[in-house]
Specification:
This protein is of the alpha+beta class. It has 29 helices and 27 strands. The chain has four domains: 162 residues, Alpha-Beta Complex (Aspartate Aminotransferase, domain 1), CATH 3.90.1150.10; 237 residues, Type I PLP-dependent aspartate aminotransferase-like (Major domain) (Aspartate Aminotransferase, domain 2); 189 residues, Aminopeptidase (3-Layer(aba) Sandwich); 171 residues, Aminopeptidase (3-Layer(aba) Sandwich), CATH 3.40.630. This is Aminotransferase class I/II-fold pyridoxal phosphate-dependent enzyme.
């Protein structure tokens, strides 16, 4: 397998959002000329509103509205001046009120995103380190990444796993001043909490630990003076904590706020906080509305409002407890998440609820893993008890219908979220299809396999038998693979779908940039399996090409595809895989819509190269059909070196020469960090040396046949396709002898002499192969991951020294 380009995260997000937008559940517009908070009009339908983050309903409070309107009349629509020079007349009073709420110095910012961009680079020194909870809000992660330019290390831990945090503390406590852990107080998707008390215990044990909390979803609806969940848990804001809150969302106005008890740090942030210094200040209407809200927060009324909301939260929990709906985290926050698993089930469920009269939010990648799509429901004081009950009844009614209509079932949803399903069910949606999954190619009819899949790469029947002999019963777990052969037939026994899968240990950074892999390889010097996961893959790390037969014209083609994807989930669960990869699809793959709906992400692979040798009887004929530019390349960059070397084709060599082959191969593999894989076992080369299916094209300096400067490992499959599967080279002679280009030339020469109809050149070095007439085919892979942690961690690591 050749280098896979690092996937473009923004393109992936764009595709996911476009899919959801086309399904009618994202990028919607509210209709109507007024808004009450209790209902909202979408697509000319009035819906009960269960999607707001204004949990106390203060955005509709008449006092805030009047204050905002009066401020516009007095001061205009904005105060167009940097706050560093001059604040509008209402700012000072607002700051005093918010400071009274918190009991500490505060900084008010335009919004949360700008606030984090100002606070984090100011608070974190160059000799500090940042540790991110992998579910901390995007705005915190984005602001933290700015510090890469200052060489501040950024680490990441799995959500709320404090044992991982303690490992990071121990790693850096001798070399760094402060270790900043950044987390949300209440997480915006699942509504779960940060373990504040446990973090404070850890901070007492490790004085270098500093805590940075984004508690915007805990603001107002809980805590003393509505200062949020985190401060309610802390009781007192200590100097090792920075606490971020909001003046928008539940507060009912606009802006954000940082509370800080460290006077020196406060002065540093307040005096010059990057975008806090240069960006525009809050509009007079926003300041006035926030001031009116602050007065409510400082009065006994805030506790009446909080109690009123908590009654609704408790009632929603009570209603849910009578259902089997997959509530992902049961707690007392106003945020609820009902998992649907597959995106298309989420789309279906949201649309059903809207038709029933309820507006809810879709939770989708990158806020959650694609496979953890679901419905986020927020409860506010706007919601009456009768519509809370009505929503739960509607969900209980429509959830199983959404599952059925999208071809899934409850166990798949619970499995996606690592929950225990209330009912064990594994219905196979065979619909007249016969499904067979076996563990060895010996259990598959040879003629049938080669007829449908034997014409490419090293995975005709004999090739797979060879691979099984090498990669089964290995001592090292990275070399011990499990094979599965899937055949789905119609009632008459005709194959509708055939493929093979492997379970193998992959390095998590195999798809990352070489710079990231280089850093991880340093860690693997001590911990060889650091950041590696079991992956269920179509094909294997040894093969390239279209690993799939699918009769798209069969009347049961879609049913066969659905059955196959369901079987993949069962296999992933049974085999303990952390990721499923379907490979080598064209850009316009017929499976694209189905795969996106089932929670797969698409990423682009390098082009796959093939060379058609039909009606090419000799090397002279081949050269004659090259373009003039490619012939010039051949004359200038290859032919002069041919005279300096000698080559031979051998099928079996002695142990000393085979050792050189392995050494040359390992030199190439270890340098190719763009495709960072574990090394293959020595027995692979020994099997090649004994197998009549393989031969070696060996390149040596002229007159030195025992010196190997390059070797191509070549396989001939059942359909007369020549497969140069791997290459080995001596990099010390790269400039002197151009061994790679020579090996490409000799491979073509050998394939023509054998009467091969095609060469499967794979994906490596497509530019060089294209100059020798190869065609480059655009290829894509589809990934389904159990969580976003690895993707986000690799993203954090990019660009760090």
């Amino acid at each position: 397998m050749a280098k896979i380009k690092h996937h473009n995260f923004l393109n992936t997000v764009h595709e996911v959002f476009t899919d959801a937008k086309n399904a009618g559940v994202l990028h919607l517009y509210a209709d109507g000329d007024s808004f009450s908070g209790r209902t909202i009009i979408v697509n000319e339908r009035e819906l009960f509103h269960f999607g707001t983050t204004g949990y106390l309903g203060l955005e509709q409070d008449p006092r805030l509205k009047r204050a905002a309107m009066d401020a516009i009349e007095k001061y205009g629509t904005q105060f167009p001046l940097s706050k560093s020079y001059l604040s509008n007349p209402l700012y000072e009073e607002l700051e005093h009120k918010i400071e009274k709420m918190y009991g500490h110095s505060i900084v008010i910012t335009k919004n949360s995103t700008l606030g984090h961009m100002g606070m984090i680079p100011s608070a974190v020194n160059d000799d500090d380190v940042i540790v991110l909870d992998h579910q901390v809000h995007w705005s915190v992660q984005n602001a933290s990444k700015m510090l890469k330019t200052r060489s501040v290390p950024i680490e990441m831990i799995r959500h709320n796993q404090l044992d991982m945090l303690e490992e990071k503390i121990k790693k850096y406590r001798e070399s760094k001043r402060f270790i900043w852990y950044m987390a949300d107080g209440i997480y915006s998707m699942y509504g779960d909490y940060a373990p504040v008390q446990e973090l404070m215990t850890l901070a007492k044990q490790y004085p270098q630990l500093r805590l940075y909390f984004d508690d915007v979803h805990g603001m107002s609806w809980t805590g003393r003076n509505g200062t949020g969940y985190v401060l309610d848990q802390l009781g007192e804001l200590t100097e090792n904590i920075l606490l971020f809150g909001t003046l928008s969302k539940t507060f009912g106005a606009s802006g954000a706020v940082l509370a800080c008890s460290d006077s020196n740090l406060y002065d540093k942030i307040k005096t010059f906080g990057g975008p806090l210094t240069f960006s525009a200040q809050l509009e007079p209407a926003s300041v006035a509305a926030a001031l009116a809200s602050a007065k409510i927060h400082l009065s006994p009324e805030i506790y009446v409002l909080q109690a009123d909301l908590k009654k609704r939260i408790a009632y929603f929990n009570e209603c849910l407890s009578d259902t089997q709906l997959p509530l992902i985290d049961r707690n007392e926050s106003p945020v609820f998440y009902i998992g649907t698993g597959m995106p298309k089930t989420g789309y279906n469920f949201v649309n059903r609820l809207m038709r029933e009269g309820y507006y809810v939010n879709l939770g989708i990648f990158p806020a959650v893993p694609v496979k953890n799509t679901g419905v986020r429901i927020t409860v506010s004081r706007h919601n009456e008890f009768e519509e809370i009950k009505g929503l739960v009844e509607a969900m209980a009614h429509h959830f199983p219908k959404a599952l059925e209509e999208t071809g899934t079932h409850m166990e798949r949803v619970f499995h996606a979220f690592k929950l225990q399903a209330p009912v064990k069910e594994r219905p196979l949606r065979s619909q007249g299809l016969l499904i067979a999954i076996v563990e060895s190619i010996n259990e598959v009819d040879r003629g049938e396999w080669d007829h449908y899949l034997g014409g490419q790469g090293v995975y005709d029947w004999q090739g797979l038998r060879f691979l099984e002999s090498v990669f089964q019963h290995q001592d090292k777990k990275e070399n011990h693979w499990k094979f599965r052969y899937v055949t789905i037939r119609d009632a008459d026994g005709a194959p509708v779908l055939m493929t093979f899968l492997t379970l193998a240990l992959w390095k998590d950074d195999m798809l990352a940039t070489p710079e990231v892999s280089a850093r991880l390889e340093e860690e693997r010097g001590l911990h060889p399996y650091y950041m590696s996961s079991s992956v269920l893959s179509m094909g294997c790390l040894f093969t390239e090409g279209d690993h799939l037969y699918w009769d798209k014209d069969h009347t049961l083609s879609q049913q066969a595809l659905d059955c196959f994807l369901e079987q993949l989930e069962f296999l992933e669960h049974d085999l303990g895989a952390k990721m499923t990869v379907l490979r080598d699809f064209p850009k316009d793959a017929a499976w694209h819509t189905t795969l996106y709906g089932q929670g797969f992400l698409r990423l682009r692979m390098p082009g796959s190269c093939t060379l058609d040798l039909t009606n090419v009887p000799s090397m002279d004929d081949f050269i004659g059909q090259l373009s003039s530019r490619n012939r010039r390349h051949l004359r200038k960059d290859i032919q002069p070196f041919l005279e300096l070397t000698e080559h031979r084709v051998v099928s079996q060599v002695d142990g000393k020469l085979l050792s050189q082959f392995k050494k040359r191969f390992e030199a190439v593999r270890s340098r190719n960090l763009g495709l960072n894989t574990f090394s293959f076992p020595d027995s692979l080369f020994e099997h090649m040396n004994r197998s009549p299916l393989w031969e070696f094209i060996v390149l040596s300096p002229l007159g030195e046949p025992k010196s190997v400067m390059g070797v191509m490992f070549c396989y001939t499959n059942t359909d007369k396709v020549y497969v140069p599967a791997f290459v080995g080279m001596d990099y010390k002679v790269l400039e002197v002898f151009a061994p790679y280009r020579q090996l490409l030339y000799r491979t073509i020469e050998r394939a023509i002499s054998l009467g091969m109809r095609k060469i499967d050149f794979g994906m490596t070095a497509s530019f060089e192969k294209k100059k020798l007439g190869a065609l480059v085919h655009e290829k894509y892979a589809y990934l389904q991951i159990t969580d976003n942690y690895i993707l986000e961690l690799l993203g954090v690591m990019e660009g760090q020294d």
